[in-house]
Amino acid sequence: MSIIDVEQISFAYSEEKRTLNQVSFTIEKGEWIAILGHNGSGKSTLAKTLVGLLEPQSGEIRIDSIKLSEETAFDLRKKVGIVFQNPDNQFVGVTVRDDIAFGMENLCIPRDEMLKRIEFYAQKVGMEQYLDKQPSNLSGGQKQRVAIAGILAMRSDILIFDEATSMLDPYTRNDLIRYIQSLNQEGFTIIMITHDVNEAILADKIMIMKQGEIAAFDNTHTILEKKELFDENHLELPVALEIASLIEDIKLKEILWEFVSTM
Ligand SMILES: Nc1ncnc2c1ncn2[C@@H]1O[C@H](COP(=O)(O)OP(=O)(O)O)[C@@H](O)[C@H]1O
Ligand SMILES: [Mg+2]
After folding, report:
1. How would you classify the pairing of strands 20-28 and 32-37?
2. pTM > 0.70: yes or no
3. How far is the CA of 242 from the centre of ligand 1 (A)?
4. Which of 30, 41, 159, 164 lies 20 to 30 Å from 189, alpha-carbon distance?
């Protein structure tokens, strides 16, 4: 069953240039999608249209079969959580606690439950010591962790991470990715916009964006076999696959693929 249907959407910030050009795709419930693409290819713009922050000039988006529009945007925001690359724009509260609570307040979650979730998700991202601190004093990575906790706490069916792990240290990032994997296994739909092909490998499918269009969208394995796609879009293949693409020996190829899928 599809949870996101995008049909022929186009979006332009100004008259000179289309940032999204006739984009169409479907995401099934419970899938994990990675979106790769060069800077400026339209990934963040696409993410913003999916949560109703930007309205496409043409085309249609359906979330859980409901057409996204001015009237439905507020309700649909409950189904889709998003964390951006730059967490500064997402802070409104006096304390970290307020900021984690913010999204939940809009969902009218009972206070007891909210307090429990704040503790739980602060711990998940390793920020439980900072709950009473001012968000403005935190580092970039810590702000990202708070923003992520706030989104996880909403328990939206669809979670979009727009390069949201870029400032995290490798240890925190791995922990978080493992947690996102467990959410995905529970049935949450994950969209991860990333620069890191090693992160994209975890997805069921990879979408590659190029100049506002979808250059490719297919099963992760199929995409990773198309080395030329990575070259054309200035994306780095994981080293093991770079090697696999150079060798003829089928057995050795298999071993390298095996290695990549268990990373
Ligand atoms: N608020 C904005 N106003 C005008 N142009 C923008 C704005 N945001 C992004 N753009 C332009 O739209 C294009 C796509 O940007 P973006 O969606 O951020 O790409 P990506 O996330 O893939 O790096 C770029 O050319 C960028 O300069
Ligand atoms: Mg972006």
Report:
1. unpaired
2. yes
3. 30
4. 41
Summarised one tens digit per residue, pLDDT across range 2-57 is 999 999 999 999 999 999 999 999 999 999 999 999 999 999 999 999 999 999 99
Whether the CB-CB separation of 227 and 187 falls below 8 Å is answered with no
Write out the two tokens for 157: 């069916």
Q: Which among 235, 226, 225 is positioned nearest to 257, based on CA atoms?
A: 225
Q: Which ligand is nearest to the CA of 48?
A: 1
Q: Which two tokens stand for residue 220?
A: 């992760």
Q: Summarize pLDDT for 143-157 with one digit per residue, the tens.
A: 989 999 999 999 999
Distance CA 216, CA 208 (A): 5
Q: Give the residue, by CA position, lying nearest to ligand 1 atom 2.
A: 13
Q: Is the CB of residue 212 below 6 angstroms from any atom belonging to ligand 1?
A: no
